[in-house]
Design a protein that fits this description.
Helix content is 41%, strand content 22%. The chain is built from eight helices and twelve strands.
């Protein structure tokens, strides 16, 4: 099964870049829309599991996006709001939003809210598979065959990056961008080499001759 698909409706590019990368590293497929009109066009063309909508948009507002979503989509809705007033919260919930979270928020809290909403709306339970490797993105568990594999947080995140970009060649620079930790500290190039080595030792039958994470010399890696 594919990962849950999220439409991020946000006009702040820095938030889109950071939050989009973070959500993808957690196993979600993310698309972004900068405003009301663009978001509604996306909803008319594609199906999403969940919408993350900023209430205040340069083009229109999040309430209009939520209203349109309830007419043309089955996606769950979480509002992102910088406003803590009761009116904003009640308005969003009355329109059919499933949850809301105030900015600034902690990334892990947002992930917890997202997964809770997906469970409540019956859109969770996404399983990723490649060969004998299975990833349960809801429980955050990885199996090789029937045996559970113990991965560190960064090893797990790195594996999800490969699964979400299956077949694509990922440069070392791209991988480094994708696996920064929650505190915003970047993993350096030497550490990336160590993590790939450790991941191969855990998922490959023969780490010296990898069948999953292959090296593309001079370019990067590919699942």
């Amino acid at each position: 099964m594919d990962s849950n698909k999220i439409l991020l409706v946000e006009d702040d590019k820095d938030i889109v870049d950071y939050l989009g990368s973070f959500l993808e590293s957690e196993g979600f497929v993310v698309e972004a829309a900068a405003g009301q009109n663009e978001a509604i066009k996306c909803l008319e063309q594609k199906e999403y599991d969940l919408l993350l909508i900023d209430i205040s948009l340069a083009d229109g507002n999040g309430y209009a996006v939520c209203a349109a979503a309830k007419q043309i989509s089955t996606a769950a809705v979480i509002f992102l709001t910088a406003s803590g007033d009761e009116y904003s919260v009640v308005t969003g919930l009355d329109m059919g939003a499933d949850d809301y979270i105030h900015k600034p928020f902690r990334p892990r809290e947002l992930i917890s809210r997202i997964r809770s909403v997906l469970r409540r709306t019956g859109k969770s339970g996404k399983i990723l598979r490649e060969g004998t490797i299975t990833v349960d993105t809801v429980k955050g568990i990885v199996y090789k065959g029937k045996e559970e594999i113990a991965l560190s947080a960064l090893e797990y995140r790195l594996l999800l990056v490969f699964f979400n970009n299956k077949g694509a060649v990922l440069s070392r620079g791209k991988l480094l961008q994708e696996i920064w930790d929650v505190a915003g500290e970047f993993v350096n190039d030497n550490t990336l080499t160590v993590y790939i080595k450790r991941l191969r030792e855990k998922i490959e039958d023969d780490p010296a001759k990898p069948q999953y994470i292959k090296t593309v010399r001079g370019v990067g890696y590919r699942l």
